[in-house]
Amino acid sequence: MSRESLASGHPRGHGEAARSAPEGAPALPGGPQGGAAALPCLKNNNSTETLFSRVENGSVKDYCKQPDDSPVKVIKYDSHGRHLVEFDDVQMWFGGLTPAEKKKSFALVENLKHMVSLFGLERLGFLTLTFAENISDFKEAQRRFNSLASHLLRKLFRHYVAVVEPQLRGAVHYHLVVVCLLDIRTGFDFAAFYECQREFRLSKHSQRFHVLKRQYTATASPTLRELWKQLRTDMKKYGFGRSELLPIRSNAEGIALYVGKYLEKGSMFRGEQFKGARRVRYSRGWKKVSQNLAWLESGQQWRNTIAQVAALLGAKDMDAIKQIASRSWAYDILTLLKAFPDATPGEIAKVIKRPLSPT
User: H helices within the chain, ranges in order?
Assistant: First the structure.
């Protein structure tokens, strides 16, 4: 199996931010002089079957039994039933998002919708940041981003939300939705941009490719052109490589779900070096939904379960449950439900009830 078969590629979607130029194409006006390869996280040459689909359709253990020069190694399981596996020195999580990651994803989508309603889609831009080197040290990546945010992003943009996306080999990329001071969307020729990409894939640097490139860059607003210039000039000062800023073609829900996919994709490649990493960051003063939210439905289910268990135990309050069960009754019930999600209140009551002392 080749290493490339691991790559899941870039989140699919319709009408999101304009895609990056294809690999090998000259950079956009916001990129470095002389042209460069496309941002690797924005390719969409996805295979229909990858390691992800093969593992998720079966079990990791079954997949590991298949003959392979570099077999998948299961490193550990977590309390949510997920697997951390390693293949060819690449670590990946399988089994979906954790409850905490689901909350972050939900908050991200809702906050991006709120951002569109506050500032308008015409002022929003999709900014992708990469490093010139293959930076996989998250602390170093965050140090550089903090410097960039403090000295440049706050000067160029009114607000932003940033998502950290670990790549296949652990390299760090940043995807941001930024609020520009003025409209950068009106008049931008998205059709010419996409056709330019298509032409490059078919004919590389053909005459038509250059005509299309001049066509869409000519439609960029003065504000967008100035931002391209600033980013091209200053990014290297803060240890970054390529950057790309584009207006957003989609609607509020489209861009929210599009960026949310980067959070979900990055969660798969979040190896041990990203443990505890803060993968979503907001500028101050505008977000609506906290990442520390509590799910109303799950909280209600928990309270209903406790009420039924207490009734079966004959306990009128939590102090009475301590007397009948133990001081750690809540932890005991939670542990039991994690192991046996379908356990009934009656079964829970029988398990946690303290045996009667012999008389």
Answer: 51-57, 60-64, 99-119, 138-148, 154-156, 190-203, 207-218, 222-234, 252-268, 296-313, 318-324, 329-339, 345-352
- 191-209, pLDDT tens digit by residue? 998 899 899 999 999 999 9
For 61, counting Cβ atoms within 10 Å of its Cβ (0-12 exposed, 13-18 middle, 19+ buried), the class is: exposed
Q: In this structure, are residues 343 and 334 in contact, taking their beta carbons and an 8 Å threshold? A: no
* Cα–Cα distance measured from residue 302 to residue 85, given in angstroms and rounded to the nearest whole number: 32
Amino acid making up residue 92: M
Q: What is the pLDDT of residues 275-304, one digit of tens each?
A: 666 778 899 888 887 766 555 456 677 888
Residues 6+ apart with CB under 8 A from 343: 336, 337
b/e code 131-154 from CB counts within 10 Å (16+ = b): beeebbebeebbebbeebbeebbe
Q: Distance (Å, rounded) from C-alpha 200 to C-alpha 202? A: 5
Rounded CA separation 55/119 (Å):
42
Model's pTM, two decimal places?
A: 0.61
CB of 70 within 8 A of CB of 53?
no
> Residue 5: CA atoms inside 13 Å, Cβ hemisphere, count?
13
Query: C-alpha angle 168/1/36, rounded to 5°?
Result: 40
